[in-house]
Amino acid sequence: MKVDIKQKINESLEQNEFLIELQYSHENSNLQHFIEYINNYELIYNNKFIVTDDEFSLLEIKFEDIIMFYSDKKYNYCKTKNGKYRIKSKLYELENMNADFIRISKSCVVNIRHVEKFDISETGKVIIKLDDSTDETVSRRKTRDIMRYLDDRRI
Fold it and tell me: With contact defined as beta carbons under 8 Å apart, do 47 and 100 qualify?
């Protein structure tokens, strides 16, 4: 896919406002991916995330309200204090959306701002206690990353 970007200053737009006009010869799947990418950029820039509730309504959730993302069977979910919501994004995409999100296992990404404490057993198993009274276990493969993360932030 070839993208040609032309920039032009428009004084009628607000400071953090952009106007994007797409011109294309025919619609294809790459175009839809590109439009989704632009829409996702806007949400990330504004620290918001779109989720689906049980009635399949779309909701905007702020990053700071997200406790964790997790996989259950074939779907991915976002957990907040208000409930759990189904999401379309892949976990590997989510862990790079914000510096507060950290991958702790193949099926879980937690928001570090919702971690109350880290429990480390004598055997080296790490359990994360979240502020919604749930516990998540750090996988053996991610233990080194978590320990490095904690060591970097030690006072």
Answer: no
What's the pLDDT at 45? Answer: 65
For 88, other C-beta atoms within 10 Å of its C-beta total 11
Beta strands in 56-121 (DSSP E): 58-62, 66-72, 75-80, 83-87, 101-105, 108-111, 115-120
Pull the structure tokens for residue 42: 């806007």
Spatial CA neighbour of 129 closest among 142, 144, 119: 119
Of the candidates 44, 2, 50, the residue with the CA atom closest to the CA atom of residue 23: 2
Residue type, 126: V
Q: Residue 77's closest CA among 45, 35, 49?
A: 49
Residue 56 β-bridge partners: none
pLDDT in tens, 15-64: 777 888 888 887 777 787 777 777 666 656 667 777 877 777 788 888 88
Residues 85/66, Cβ–Cβ less than 8 Å: no
